[in-house]
Amino acid sequence: MTVTAAVIQRDDTFLLTRRLAGTHLEGHWEFPGGKCEPGETLSACLLRELEEELGCRARIGECLLSTRHAYPERIVDLHFFRCELVGEAAPRIGQQMRWVPRNELRTLPLPPADSALIELLEGQQGARASRRGEGPGARSQGCLRDRA
Predict the structure, then answer these.
(1) pLDDT by residue (tens digit) across 67-81?
(2) How many CB atoms lie within 10 A of CB 55?
């Protein structure tokens, strides 16, 4: 499964949304985004997901990280892009949304697939190993700009 996620930063905070009840990893906080539809490019997927979930448009910037994570029930190819909002975000599907300071990212329940990105954002010494994809269930693929 291919998934995109937006890393939206305001000052030293990041926009996160909370997964809804009844969904995979319910209650976890995550960077907004979602699953790619067949034939959809990564950037088109991310733009569509931001519009559907947060009612906003965005400018997609650099790819920060692409990683593969093996959950017991699925394998996820996850692509994180730095994004800049055009307008204001407002949850449209009932999920919670909040701006989280960088130093509080680890205080929230986050999906295991996000751990390499969190290390990268925190600038920790361990980010080098995570970018190589070391750790349980993860492996790095480098950044892929767009693919269908």
Answers:
(1) 999 988 889 899 999
(2) 14
Q: What is the pLDDT of residue 26?
A: 81
CA–CA separation, 91 and 98 (whole Å): 10
The DSSP line for 51-71 is: HHHHS-EEEEEEEEEEEEEE-
The CA distances from residue 97 to 32, 33, 49, 65, 94, in Å, are 9, 13, 15, 22, 9
The per-residue pLDDT for 4 is 96
What span, in angstroms and rounded, lies between the C-alpha atoms of 120 and 127?
5
CATH says 2-140 is which class?
alpha beta
Q: How far is CA 92 from CA 4, 15, 17, 44, 64, in A?
A: 18, 15, 11, 19, 26
Domain boundaries, the chain: 2-140
This prediction's pTM: 0.81
